[in-house]
Amino acid sequence: MTNIATSTTLDAEQRRLKRAKKAALAAFLGGALEYYDFFIYATAASLIFSKIFFPSGDPTVALIASFATFGVAYVARPFGAVLFGHLGDKIGRKSTLVLTLVLMGAATFLIGALPDFKTAGYWAPALLVLLRLMQGLSAGAETAGASALTTEEAPTGRRGFFASFAMSGISFGIVLASLAFLPVAAMNEADRLAWGWRIPFWLSIVVLVVAYLVRRSLEEPEVFEEKHDKGELVKLPFAKMFSTHPAQFLQVALMSFETVTNTFMQSFGLAYAVSVGVDATTMLWVSILGNVIAIATQPLLARVSDSFGRRKVFVTGVLGSGVMIFVYFFVISTANIPMIFLVSTLITAGTYSASNAVYPAWFSELFNVKVRYTGMAIGLQIGILCAGFTPLLGTALVGATKANWDPPPGSWRLRRCWPWPAPCGLRRRPKPRCASWATTCPRFSSCRLKAEPGGGS
Q1: 408 pLDDT more than 50
Q2: So what CATH class is 23-218+231-447?
Q3: Is the pTM of the predicted complex or chain greater than 0.85?
Q4: Where are the domains of the chain?
């Protein structure tokens, strides 16, 4: 009897591990598509769109208009978080994640088919904004949904590791986008502006198909299915979340400002580097190197958080990135290529990866399964909202000349783009609503969070 019981337990653990691996793969591919789309748009906004959608006598004004469309998606993200967060907590993680994936892929492909300003006049930027809003709606719940699903499927004590694959997927997506834009950057300007820029947008269909096939084969997490079968899911997860998890929501919203670093680096950094004479192709290779290494370092750093606590790893990453971002833009202003590669890699694969790899599991652990998708999605997007406008803010404050960056004027101005609120979120230590997670993870107490009696999963 003992052998049978042991065998049954091992079989159950193996099945759970298999489900966790499939969920991690689905999260990886979804993150890859989301940030492939994000980075090709950021790259196009930096190098292309100001010239074909926003013709202006003043290049700085045109660039600001181009970056404004980049920020539009961030306005839509909280609305997508409310909509798809509700669906994710009502009908399930799997169906919602398939829907957001298709919406994102379709919008990206259609951007590549848009006419330019000379052909369609103001309809061209109007349609660009519309499709960008579609991207924002779908992206608003992608990371939260993938993180919730992967965390719920992961074995006890390894949630950080498995949930981090959504973040590794993001790095992979940026690598793919950079590789897709390398031949475009090498074209002559006439061909690049006429048709070359469209190719990376159309190639997104490949990532979409692969990610769709994997996600379609997923199963709903058992913890969600149990609540569904018992009829314990709530009618309005949005309202329930604010009534039962207000402190957790506030913490997630503040801590998600850590994404400012990456957004500012990947979008404004490219435009600024080109304006001071650094070749665009070089900057794409800078991004590729850092993100290739980050694909490997993020799961490792998340595994460290499984053993020693989320808070320590997160704080180290946020504070490190906040300091290093100033160094990064200074070395760009000097056009010192080896130093640009070095500092960018230290941020992307080091400090930023430390905070980025930890939050999927940590944020998921703060919410009850009934409102997990909604709470994490909305909190995350409220914080990320400000990140979308940092390229615009950077252009307006610093302009496009090297002289404006040289310390102290440039660095002092850009302090406004530093992720100030992220460490503030750590001052609040709300209790997680998941008693079983808090008690079964031996290192969970290192986050200085205690379970509520009867919190449930």
Answers
A1: no
A2: mainly alpha
A3: no
A4: 23-218+231-447
